[in-house]
Amino acid sequence: MVDNIDIVFLKPTKFEDCVICANYIKEDKIVNMNLSQLDDNESRRVLDYIAGAIFITKAEIVNVGNKIFCSIPSNRNFLNEMNRETSHEEEEVEIVRG
Q1: Phi-psi region of 74 (alpha: psi -120 to 50; beta: other; left: phi over 0)
Q2: Based on the number of CB atoms within 10 Å of its own CB, is 67 exposed (0-12), middle (13-18) or buried (19 or more)?
Q3: What's the 3-state SS for the chain?
Q4: Is the backbone of residue 25 left (phi > 0), alpha (psi -120 to 50) or beta?
Q5: How many CA atoms, within 13 angstroms, populate the side-chain half-sphere of residue 59?
């Protein structure tokens, strides 16, 4: 596919589009998938298919919003502050993968 691209944004409209998502995941790209165009059953099917590519590449999937998921390759660091409670006393930042 494209070698100089680090992040790919996709919005699948049918189950068959998950093959494109999986190919980018296998190329160790950061893949942001917006599944809002799919019904709940198709979204589940896409995520099941994508889970195979995630497992094979040892990547990680993060739910970043309503029907929006991001695949992060194992060789990338990322910070997920969405699930973190904010505290003025807390200075440490949790790094999920390092």
Answers
A1: alpha
A2: middle
A3: CCCCCCEEEECCCCHHHHHHHHHHHHCCCEEEEECCCCCHHHHHHHHHHHHHHHHHHCCEEEEEECCEEEEECCCCCECCCCCCCCCCCCCCCCCCEC
A4: alpha
A5: 25
Please state the pTM of the whole predicted model.
0.76
Number of Cβ within a 10 Å radius of residue 3: 6
Tens of pLDDT, residue by residue, the chain (98 residues): 567 889 999 999 999 999 999 999 999 999 999 999 999 999 999 999 999 999 999 999 999 889 999 999 998 888 777 765 544 444 444 555 54
How far is residue 36's CA from residue 22's CA, in Å, rounded to a whole number?
Answer: 18
User: What single letter denotes the amino acid at residue 97?
Assistant: R
